[in-house]
Amino acid sequence: MLGGERLHALNIVPAHIFSAIFTCALCLYLVGLVRKWLDTEFLPKTQMSSGMRASLLTVFSNVGYVLVALQTFSALGVKWHNLAWIVSALSVGIGFGLQEIVKNFISGLTLLAERPVKVGDMISITGIEGDIRRISVRATEIQLADRSTVIVPNSHLISQNVRNVTMGNKTQGVVTLSLTFALDIDPEQVRDVLLEAYLDHPSVLDRPAPSVIFSQLTPEGMTLTATGYVASPRIAGDTRSDLLFAILKRLRASEIPLSISRTVVVRGMSGSISNQQPTDRNPGPAELRIPSTVIE
User: Are 117 and 130 in contact (CB under 8 A)?
Assistant: First the structure.
């Protein structure tokens, strides 16, 4: 007999199965149609951000799929008070094999509701830094700088430390350069050169103003650190590259060299070797060049 006693207890008959299949297909089509209309027609006309629109679409899809499942059970003629054995089976399955899936599902709903991160944010988690492209129920897709995509389970975004670089879309980027110069260079002249390079760059903000500090003094040289702010962390890398080009050109024009590594020459001589005349096989005292090394 089709379905056995359990299906008979749920009031499921073959005629209801075809009706349920048709109902499920129709409802899924309607959910997809409405979702597409919201995504392409309605939501773009609102003042919502792209992250908020993506969150609303995901919530709508999840609610729609739940309603489709309920409508399908209703078309099957299922008596809800007879679903206790199904709930028990699902509880056992969740306890053993579906625990991670359920945890990621709940975490996904938490991300969509609280929105600590959203689509378009630049985040950093466990050494991975990139832009969030999609937040689904189970996982989040992060696009890296090389255009590859990393899929991170939603539970990691809830349970681990996450650095949101662009939260609120008002975060400024920081461009910091540390350069080491020889000890016989005038630090004030170098400071003026670095400040001029920062102030002349169009991406560097006037407020907060760029600054140069004397950060380190060692026998090898003195280190000056220049800091400036840009409108977004996304352009910090390009601005840093432009500043390096400009600073190098200005330093050459001002005849200011960077710190040059010193070379220490160690000549190894022993009594047996020093008494011999240099030959083709014995060229003489050994010579070792060690850059920037102190020999005690």
Answer: no
pTM over 0.70: no
Cα separation, 52 vs 75, in Å, equals 34
Q: Nearest-CA neighbor of 183 among 228, 131, 224?
A: 224
- Calpha distance 241→106 (Å, rounded): 42
Q: Please say whether the beta carbons of 137 and 188 come within 8 A.
A: no
Q: How far apart are CA 126 and CA 136, in angstroms?
A: 20
Phi-psi region of 120 (alpha: psi -120 to 50; beta: other; left: phi over 0): left
DSSP state of 166: T
Q: Which amino acid is at 101?
A: I
For residues 140 and 162, give the distance between their C-alpha atoms in angstroms, rounded to a whole number. 13
Average pLDDT for runs of 10 along the chain of length 296? 50 73 90 89 77 76 84 75 64 68 80 82 89 86 91 90 79 90 91 94 93 91 94 90 95 85 54 48 48 40
Residue 110 resides in a domain:
no
103 falls within a domain: no
Per-residue tokens: 119: 């689509």
Structural domains counted in the chain: 4
Q: Residue 183 domain-assigned?
A: yes
Question: Which strands sit side by side in the sheet containing 163-164, from one edge to the other?
Answer: 149-153, 139-143, 128-135, 122-125, 163-164
Nearest by Cα to 167 from 132, 198, 208: 132
